[in-house]
């Protein structure tokens, strides 16, 4: 009976581990650096693409390792140019990522978990069971796929990355940080940290940890209400991460990083469309330097949540802007292919 040997995904190895492997197999340690560049700078998916390695070396790698890269299983294009990818992982699970083109930038919106465990009532992803966290290379691969699409389809480079896809990034902290290191490193994709934004529902302890870890990327908070009762009714996480705790964590964040916070805020009819809610948001904005994105709501079929009237958005805008808070209304893109904020639900 032949014993089947499970091969390791080579991208799970650190550079030093790769060096050890080559030395133990009678090769030179510098081979590890060559392989590392192929994996993380050139994003190859096959050992045979590593053309500066000898055939015996490539065969040795194939005998011991695999590269569990993602596959874009389905690609949909919106009338506004937005592209949604159904991304198949090596175990057959699917996540979604989105390419968002505008006149001045091209943004990759990437997922960090298969499904989500946070049960925000307005979000389609929250209705999916959380299956598992994505690995650093699965997150990195989503960026690479969108980078390639951007260059091929639009003839322009990828400029920005937002962790606003499926899942809560701070519940997959170690893997997200590892992916960001590969994306921003000179030995990886070499993207500037200031071009990355991590969005969270507001996990206070993890925001403090990020500040202590000295991260250089931008922070966005999915806020949507600045009154505890309202926020808890639509975002159950608020029961254990109250607005007061969130405010203290954000003060700590700003003290440590001197980086402005962006608040993502949808205004819904009969939920947070009163002046009282707008005043509460203004008060919350006073805690740390910030800006506010008022986001156009994207329906998820059942009609429980409805976009507030334009005059309500104008009221929010006037109140915030007149008090010195930078505010913009963010129009949703990719709605016709369920690619907009809150719509990612693996319908494909």
What does this protein look like?
- With 348 residues, the chain is α/β, with parallel strands linked by helices.
- It folds into 2 domains: 8-66, DNA polymerase, domain 1; 71-337, Aldolase class I (TIM Barrel, Alpha-Beta Barrel), CATH 3.20.20.
- It is built from 10 helices and 14 strands.
- Strands 3-4-5-6-9-10-11-12-13-14 form a 10-stranded mixed β-sheet, with helices on one face. It has a two-stranded parallel ribbon with strand order 1-2. A two-stranded antiparallel sheet has the order 7-8.
Structure summarized in a few sentences:
The protein is an alpha/beta fold. It contains ten helices and 14 strands.
Output the CATH topology of the largest domain.
TIM Barrel
Taking the sheet with the most strands, its summary is: 10 strands, mixed
For the largest sheet, list the strands in their spatial order. Answer: 3-4-5-6-9-10-11-12-13-14
Distance between the termini: 41 Å
SSE run? EHHHEEEEEEEHEHEHEHHEHEHE
What proportion of the residues is helical, as a percent range?
Answer: 25-40%
Regions with pLDDT < 50 over 5+ consecutive residues?
Answer: none
Number of strands: 14
Q: What CATH first level of the largest domain would be assigned?
A: Alpha Beta
Q: What is the CATH architecture annotation of the largest domain?
A: Alpha-Beta Barrel
Total domain units: 2
Shape from CA axes? elongated
* Rg: 22 Å
Mean pLDDT: 92
Which homologous superfamily in CATH is the superfamily of the largest domain?
A: Aldolase class I
Count of helix runs: 10
Percentage beta strand = 15-25%
Which structural category fits the helices and strands?
Answer: alpha/beta
């Amino acid at each position: 009976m032949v014993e089947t040997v499970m091969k390791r995904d080579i991208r799970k190895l650190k550079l030093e581990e790769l060096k050890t492997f080559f030395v133990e197999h009678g090769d030179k340690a510098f081979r590890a650096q060559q392989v590392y560049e192929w994996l993380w700078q050139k994003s190859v998916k096959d050992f045979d693409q590593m053309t500066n390695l000898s055939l015996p070396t490539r065969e040795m790698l194939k005998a011991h390792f695999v590269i569990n890269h993602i596959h874009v299983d389905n690609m949909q294009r919106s009338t506004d140019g937005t592209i949604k990818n159904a991304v198949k992982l090596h175990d057959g699970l699917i996540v979604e990522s989105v390419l968002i083109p505008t006149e001045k930038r091209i943004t990759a919106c990437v997922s960090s978990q298969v499904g989500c465990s946070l049960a925000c009532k307005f979000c389609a992803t929250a209705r999916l069971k959380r299956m598992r966290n994505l690995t650093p290379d699965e997150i990195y691969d989503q960026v690479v796929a969108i980078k390639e699409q951007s260059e091929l389809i639009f003839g322009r480079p990828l400029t920005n990355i937002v962790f606003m896809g499926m899942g809560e990034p701070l519940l997959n902290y170690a893997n997200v940080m590892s992916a960001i290191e590969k994306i921003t490193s000179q030995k990886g994709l070499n993207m500037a940290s200031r071009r990355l934004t991590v969005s969270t529902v507001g996990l206070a302890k993890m925001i403090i940890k990020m500040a202590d870890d000295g991260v250089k990327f931008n922070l966005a908070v999915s806020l949507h209400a600045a009154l505890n009762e309202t926020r808890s009714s639509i975002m159950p996480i608020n029961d254990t991460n109250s607005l007061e705790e969130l405010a203290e964590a954000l003060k700590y964040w700003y003290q440590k990083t001197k980086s402005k916070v962006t608040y993502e805020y949808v205004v819904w009819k009969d939920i947070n469309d009163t002046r009282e809610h707008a005043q509460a948001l203004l008060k919350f904005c006073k805690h740390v330097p910030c800006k506010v994105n008022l986001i156009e709501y994207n329906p998820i079929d059942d009609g429980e949540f409805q976009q507030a009237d334009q005059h309500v958005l104008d009221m929010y805008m006037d109140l915030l802007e007149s008090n010195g808070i930078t505010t913009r209304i963010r129009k949703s893109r990719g709605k016709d292919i369920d690619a907009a904020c809150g719509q990612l639900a693996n319908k494909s």
